Amino acid sequence: MSFEPSLKLLHSPGACSFPNLILARVGQMTPEFASINPKRRVPVLAIDNEVITEMSAVLTSISSLAPEKNLLGRSTIETIRVYEWLNWLSTVVHSQAMGSIWRTERYSNDPAVYPAIREKGLETIRECYAMINEKVAEPGTGFAVGKGFTAVDPFLLVLYCWASRLEKDMGQDYPVLCGLREEASW
Ligand SMILES: N[C@@H](CCC(=O)N[C@@H](CS)C(=O)NCC(=O)O)C(=O)O
Fold it and tell me: What is the pLDDT of residues 26-44, one digit of tens each?
């Protein structure tokens, strides 16, 4: 039996929702958007009548539409590694580090401490980029998990693109992440 649900993805250009390259619609902060996702975050994927939020759940949904592509890994241990990456990227790298730089007001009501929070966020993001660079280099394939492309790789690409928004030349300190962008013909 074929599975051909109707899909609608809410994303934002250059945002973390970019990996979920499906049909898209931007409406992030409108009242209509809030009624779809009260968390007011993208990505949001509508599959028939189901509204899916949170990056790892959206990536899982899209990956499961094409099981033959092995986007969640080619073995149980690879799937475990994919979720290990996605959880860390969503929580520490995206919410904690990037969030403290770009959404500092969520971390304190006192603007006087914002510069210190941002500085710490930048320090954390540098540690995370260094770790990503090392981890992707480990299998020697240019991919995050095993020898092939998984749902993790486009998430890393977005993070790499954010590096140059943080500091013009920051990306150059992480050659493996740089390579991801060059390979981004996937
Ligand atoms: N926990 C969510 C976070 C998603 C998220 O923060 N998305 C950003 C775009 S990169 C967003 O919607 N930002 C709007 C805001 O922070 O107000 C997930 O993993 O999907």
Answer: 445 677 778 888 898 888 8
